[in-house]
Design a protein that fits this description.
It contains three helices and 28 strands. The chain has about 450 residues and is α+β, with helices and mostly antiparallel strands. Strands 5, 6, 9, 10, 11, 21, 22, 23, 24, 25 and 26 form an eleven-stranded antiparallel sheet that branches. Strands 13, 14, 15, 16 and 17 form a five-stranded antiparallel sheet that branches. Strand 15 and strand 16 form a beta hairpin. It is rod-shaped.
Length: about 450
């Protein structure tokens, strides 16, 4: 009997050593949770024995319990490196089982990246699950989890139609000596500024505005040019102006009051590109621009003024034009919204990360690869949003390190070693006693 007790001690010490060694080996594994071997004594009694004098029968491993307290953070430059600050897990799924809660895997390892199809996956190729959201309101469209995909390209080309302008034209300026206006001669205008607009095919063109101080007090003239498909600067006239001789460039007048304010808002419609004789390289020739000058800061637009201050471009913005854009940046906010930014200036929320939790975390079954799956002991899987109810917030550019305390593990290692040595000594003593008994004659 004593041999069996000593052997059970050796087995328990070995289990403790194995558990501690596994913890130490995974000290640098992202999202790893330490395990703790828990033991219970073995005791049996019968009607033929006296309970007051019966010894125990050794030790047994009750369970190897995982400890799910949070690990420390390590900061990276990858926006798809994520950690959960608080409770909850990332929900993952393999191809063919997306959306099936019974086959979902859970992890605290947030080291994600994009695969060849621009889907968000972990190191083993499992898909990070999320919810589809409305591009405008960011509200969840469907509660059915699905793969998160970040498109490399986004947005069909949109032709420019409205240009918002806001400038300060210096009150001290004087009319140019050389007239009439000619954009090729810089002594025929006072100031100029340029921006980019797009045709119906998404090709960029340079739109330039020229400002000329009139001889009439508190009045300026504005003229416009645009580059054609070959990059040559061409005149663009105002549509409402009377017909002018060929080669004569016409513009419009900006009038100011004594306080330097624009007398009235101006929405100047320009002639279409076909009428202007501008070759747009196959793009819609009927495209026409509207120049919008505001007299105040209504709707967040910068005002056009004539103050005793230097020339200042407060706004020169294309309100609707865009080219097709490629992905330049990905951001994830604390609520789990995955936002993609594109080179055409468009931002898009591609989805919201789905968070998962169970009632009893220690009831989860380990799958390896810092993955767990639900069991009857863990309880059913509950899905939700980050930063809501019992779910923690998501931190982008951060990973959760293992929750291993190396100092404590080394202490546990020494303790398990001593227990193993002591059990080995008990087995050795028992063996010597049996040998002595066998040698009695």
């Amino acid at each position: 009997m004593s041999i069996n007790i000593a052997l059970s001690g050796l087995s328990a010490a070995q289990k403790d050593l194995n558990t501690t060694s596994n913890n130490i080996a995974n000290a640098n594994t992202v999202g790893f949770k330490e395990s703790r071997a828990e033991f219970s004594d073995v005791y049996s009694n019968s009607i033929f024995s006296n309970a007051n004098t019966t010894t125990g029968n050794g030790v047994q491993t009750a369970t190897v319990a995982q400890q799910f307290h949070e690990g420390s953070s390590v900061y990276t430059n990858n926006p798809l490196d994520l950690r959960v600050s608080g409770s909850g897990f990332f929900a993952l799924s393999e191809e063919g089982n997306v959306g099936n809660q019974n086959t979902m895997s859970l992890t605290r390892n947030g080291a994600f990246h994009l695969n060849k199809n621009n889907e968000v996956v972990n190191g083993e190729g499992l898909f990070l699950l999320g919810y589809q959201v409305n591009d405008i309101t960011n509200d969840i469209v469907s509660q059915q989890p699905q793969k998160l995909k970040i498109d490399e390209q986004y947005g069909a080309p949109v032709a420019s139609r409205n240009m918002n302008l806001g400038v300060n034209l210096p009150n001290s300026a004087v009319a140019p000596n050389n007239t009439p206006f000619d954009h090729l001669q810089n002594d025929t205008y006072n100031k100029s500024t340029a921006t980019t607009m797009y045709d119906s095919l998404g090709s960029p063109h340079t739109l330039t505005t020229y400002y000329v101080k009139d001889a009439v007090p508190n009045a300026w003239s504005a003229y416009y040019t645009i580059t054609d498909s070959a990059g040559v600067e061409q005149s663009l006239n105002v549509a409402a102006q009377p017909a002018t001789p060929a080669g004569v460039h016409n513009g419009h007048t900006l009038n100011f009051d004594a306080s330097g304010q624009l007398v009235a808002n101006q929405n100047i419609v320009m002639e279409d590109f076909q009428t202007a004789g501008i070759n747009m390289g196959g793009a819609d020739p009927a495209q026409a621009l509207t120049m919008n000058f505001s007299m105040n800061n209504a709707n967040g637009r910068s005002a056009t003024t004539q103050y005793a201050a230097p020339f200042d471009v407060r706004e020169f913005e294309d309100m609707d034009g865009a080219t097709s854009g490629h992905l330049i940046k990905v951001d994830v906010d604390p609520d789990g919204n995955v936002m993609a930014s594109y080179s055409n200036g468009k931002d898009r929320t591609v989805g919201r990360i789905a968070m998962a939790r169970v009632a009893n975390e220690q009831g989860l079954a380990q799958l390896g690869g810092t993955l767990w799956t639900q069991t009857q002991e863990s309880g059913a899987l509950n899905l939700g949003d980050a930063s809501e109810q019992e779910f923690g917030a998501i931190k982008s550019g951060t990973l959760e390190q293992s929750n291993i305390d190396m100092t404590q593990e080394l202490v546990d290692l020494i303790s398990a070693q001593r227990n193993f040595q002591a059990s080995s000594r008990a087995l050795d003593v028992n063996n010597q006693l049996q040998q002595n008994i066998l040698q009695i004659r």
